[in-house]
Design goal:
Layout (H helix, E strand, L loop, with lengths): L19 E3 L10 E2 L10 E5 L7 E5 L1 E2 L4 E2 L24 E3 L4 H9 L7 H4 L12 E2 L5 E7 L2 E7 L11 E5 L9 E3 L6 E4 L10 E10 L6 E7 L5 E6 L4 E7 L5 E9 L6 E8 L4 E6 L2 E3 L1 E6 L12 E3 L11 E9 L5 H7 L11 E5 L16 E3 L14 E12 L2 E7 L15 E3 L15 E6 L2 E7 L4 E2 L5 E3 L4 E13 L6 E8 L4 E11 L5 E9 L4 E2 L2 E10 L5 E7 L5 E6 L4
Antiparallel strand pairs: 1-7, 2-6, 3-4, 3-7, 5-6, 8-29, 9-10, 10-28, 11-27, 11-29, 12-24, 13-23, 13-26, 14-19, 14-24, 15-16, 15-23, 16-17, 17-18, 18-22, 19-20, 20-21, 24-25, 27-28, 30-41, 31-40, 32-39, 33-39, 34-37, 34-38, 34-40, 34-41, 35-36, 35-39
């Protein structure tokens, strides 16, 4: 039957295993100071005197001295004689200890003793709200960035019983982070600029990074770029189909341009980056810190040194009246080719501004200040201000454990933060977790917890005879460690003017295993020009993988010639996705 807890018994109550001692001094019925031979570790708690004797008494103490504990009262069940017991007289040498008594369970059941770290340390679950987050009570030490908004964190000891795939985390940041960003409206021709930037002298290799949240696709929607009438131009932009382009050329329009095959989604915070070597005719583009397939072509006669000149813009194309529509923050320009590892290690944290080879750094956090050494601070045009609160770095992020591995005395947690959050690149001291499928306050929309390749344009590849698997479209979906539900959706088309019969099957390939969707097929006969079909398939089992690749299988009669296969993302967005199964 429930008993009344002492008024002063609250979330400060502590418990320790196996504490037992004896009284060092006699104890009277009205004494509030109790002297054990050895002291308990707990500063506040319950003790039982003479637990197996004829007159056991439960006491509550909330002060611990050097050699005694003090009860708040000797009467009314507030210190002595609590939980229905009676204050008694005891001789020195009487046993006293901390045991599992009803008072502890009453405190849990009523929520009086609950606090971050208390329940977890004792392996209890919340009996007040099973969907609530409770404090981890330990530091999650940042490990490494994995990409696709996943990172690893390390905790001491074997915690695989506490944290397992599917565990949800609330991740409050500790370090200061951005609270504002730049929000540009293309319809209002908004942008920021500096007319005569200094220190931008690179003519060959360069790297550009930024966080963006695209609100609508625009033609040549530059994130950042420089150019003028008597100079070449360079920059990074989002195109009308959502793909990412890096370009550079001289005053005679000779140079290089490279474009990603996949698109940046609308209304999601995404990190984009690209690097270009003019002399080497090479380029790499990145989405959420991982390299993505791209195409590169020469402009004019090809490789040439950049011609620097003209104003520097954020949100406007230097050579046209085209504007970016959406939010921008953390813009970085480097006069070197940043490595894959460097981009991955730094995409989710603020820089200082003095990093080697950093020639421009605009946080766009409530101002247009260039924190780099060149100090090319910009001015907003047409009402452009960097005061939007929709920054990619939230004060509190959210995550799901996809893998927990114990080794060498520590547990490594792989935590995926989804499209709505960013993994903090720092040690986290105030993390809270829940093993509920839908914890209170957790963003549980499925679309926020999927990794996808988005295709908004038409992409074609060719088959040549035979019946083997081929990969003419080869869209690459990079899936971090863990278990995922994978699938694809889109409009696909095949063309063949020769004699059939033939059919085309779509599959997903993980580098080792081909998953053949035999029901997802297009079949044709003699001399058909083209057939199209909309496919929407999800693999019915959970797949563990690091890489998925969209592949086609063609079955063609001997001598049938070449078949072309086309992903018609221009008709409707086509995607290949990995859905986190714990939502």
């Amino acid at each position: 039957m429930p008993q009344t807890l002492p008024t002063a018994a609250n979330q400060t109550v502590e418990y320790e295993d196996y504490y037992e001692s004896t009284l060092a001094q006699p104890l009277g019925t009205s004494d509030t100071d109790i002297f054990p031979e050895s002291m308990p570790s707990s500063a506040v708690g319950f003790l039982v005197i003479d637990a197996t004797g004829t007159t056991p008494e439960t006491i509550f103490y909330n002060f611990k001295g050097a050699n005694f504990v003090r009860c708040p009262s000797a009467v009314d069940g507030e210190g002595r004689g609590v939980f229905g017991t009676t204050p008694n007289t005891y001789q020195a040498g009487t046993k006293i200890g901390m045991y599992s008594i009803a008072a502890f369970f009453e405190g849990l059941a009523t929520g009086r003793f609950m606090r971050d770290g208390f329940l977890q340390a004792r392996h209890f679950s919340s009996s007040i709200d099973p969907n609530s987050f409770v404090g981890a009570g330990e530091t999650l030490v940042f490990g490494t960035n994995v990409g696709s908004k996943m990172a690893t964190y390390i905790v001491t000891g074997d915690k695989t019983g506490r944290y397992s795939p599917g565990t949800k985390f609330r991740l409050p940041r500790v370090a200061i982070t951005n609270t504002k960003c730049l929000d540009l409206e293309a319809s209002s021709s908004q942008y920021a600029t500096v007319a005569s930037p200094i220190g931008l002298t690179f003519t060959d290799v360069f790297t550009i990074e930024a966080w963006v949240k695209v609100e609508s696709y625009q033609t040549n929607g530059n994130i950042i770029g420089r150019g003028g009438t008597s100079a070449g131009d360079w920059g990074l932009r989002i195109n009308a189909d959502g793909t990412v382009t890096i370009y550079g050329n001289n005053a005679s329009s000779n140079g290089d341009i490279a474009t990603s095959l996949e698109a940046v989604p609308l209304d999601k915070n995404v990190h984009v980056a690209a690097k270009l070597s003019m002399s080497g005719d090479t380029a790499t583009l990145y989405i959420n810190a991982l390299p993505v397939p791209s195409t590169r072509i020469n402009l004019g006669s090809g490789a040439a040194a950049l011609t620097q000149g003209g104003p520097l813009y954020i949100g406007k194309n230097p050579s046209s009246s085209n504007f970016f529509d959406g939010k921008i923050s953390e813009v970085r320009v480097w006069d070197t080719l940043r490595s894959d590892a460097q981009i991955l290690a730094n995409y989710n944290k603020r820089l200082v501004g003095s990093e080697t080879n950093l020639v421009g750094y605009w946080r766009l956090d409530n101002d247009f200040v260039d924190l780099g050494l060149n100090m090319n601070t910009m001015t907003g045009v047409a009402g452009a201000v960097a005061t939007a609160v929709d920054t990619p770095f939230a004060t509190t992020e959210w995550g799901i454990v996809t893998d927990a591995t114990f080794s060498g005395g520590n547990t490594t947690l792989s935590i995926y933060t989804g499209s709505a959050s960013v993994p903090p690149a720092e040690d986290l001291t105030n993390a809270a977790y829940s093993n509920s499928r839908a914890p209170t306050g957790f963003p549980s929309a499925q679309q926020d917890w999927r990794i996808e390749v988005l295709i908004n344009s038409s992409r074609t590849g060719n088959f040549v005879g035979g019946s083997d698997w081929e990969t003419p479209l080869a869209f690459t979906l990079q899936v971090p460690i863990g278990k995922w539900l994978i699938g694809y959706e889109g409009n696909f088309e095949q063309n063949n003017g020769s004699t059939g019969p033939y059919d085309l099957r779509l599959a997903l390939f993980d580098g080792t295993t081909m998953i053949d969707h035999t029901v997802a097929r297009m079949s044709g006969s003699t001399n058909i020009t083209s057939i199209s079909q909309h496919w929407n398939k999800q693999v019915p089992t959970i797949i563990t993988a690091q890489l998925k690749q969209l592949s086609f299988k063609q079955l063609v009669a001997a001598g049938a010639g070449t078949i072309s296969a086309t992903c018609r993302g221009d008709l409707a967005a086509s995607t290949m996705f990995a859905q986190c199964p714990y939502i």
